[in-house]
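Retro notes (design track)

What went well: tokenization of the new backbones is finally stable.
What didn't: we kept losing track of which sequence belonged to which structure.
Fix going forward: every design gets posted as structure first, then sequence, in one message. First example under the new rule, 150 residues:
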């Protein structure tokens, strides 16, 4: 009983703290993505950021990290019928396109069976692999990779 009460109190304190961090230090008002735009109006959309082009293979930060996409992907369609990513990264074409092949994990089902073609759970590449822009980070990130990857 005591443990549950402590846990509840801890999560409540956490919640309140999270809310306080959303308050503007000067005005005491809540921050929101809407900024100063009144609620009944739509804020202008942010400008699309320029993708970083051809920056070369990026270092990985942890062992099972999906590598970052180091090139533009504009126009690379992925739907039920076509997958442009596989046109370069599939095992058939990778060598002739000078592109890295998808690794064997991309053929595995969640029950550990290896299929003859890309596994459905690895079909939509951009679920895991993300292209980069030179945008300012939204929040500070102090993550450091494990020793062996530094
Ligand atoms: C026209 C061929 C081509 C297409 C299409 C293509 N890529 Fe690539 N991709 C490459 C090449 C070449 C590299 C290696 C870049 C280098 O060595 O600088 C690469 C690198 C990558 C890497 C980095 C791999 C690593 O080991 O770090 C990822 C991830 C990736 N591509 C994902 C994608 C995704 C997702 C798509 C589809 C949205 C895609 N690519 C479409 C040619 C392509
Ligand atoms: C569910 C997440 C996920 C999806 C979806 C996915 N990948 Fe990956 N990919 C990973 C992870 C994690 C790694 C690194 C570890 C590994 O090889 O499994 C990786 C590694 C890679 C590599 C580097 C291979 C190597 O040997 O270093 C390439 C290239 C790649 N993926 C391309 C693709 C392409 C193209 C697609 C779409 C057809 C895709 N991935 C879909 C998670 C994913």
């Amino acid at each position: 009983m005591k443990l549950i009460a402590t846990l509840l109190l801890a999560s409540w304190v956490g919640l309140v703290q999270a809310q306080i961090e959303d308050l503007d230090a000067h005005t005491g008002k809540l921050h929101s993505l809407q900024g100063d735009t009144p609620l009944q109006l739509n804020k202008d959309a942010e400008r699309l950021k320029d993708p970083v082009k051809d920056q070369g293979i990026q270092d990985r930060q942890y062992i099972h990290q999906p590598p970052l996409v180091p090139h533009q992907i504009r126009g690379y369609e992925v739907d039920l019928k076509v997958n442009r990513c596989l046109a370069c990264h599939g095992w058939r074409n990778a060598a002739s396109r000078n592109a890295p092949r998808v690794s064997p994990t991309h053929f595995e089902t969640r029950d550990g069976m290896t299929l003859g073609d890309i596994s459905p759970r690895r079909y939509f590449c951009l679920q895991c692999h993300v292209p980069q822009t030179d945008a300012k980070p939204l929040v500070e990130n102090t993550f450091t990779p494990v020793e062996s990857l530094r």
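Added context from the reviewer: Helices lie at 2-21, 84-89, 94-97.
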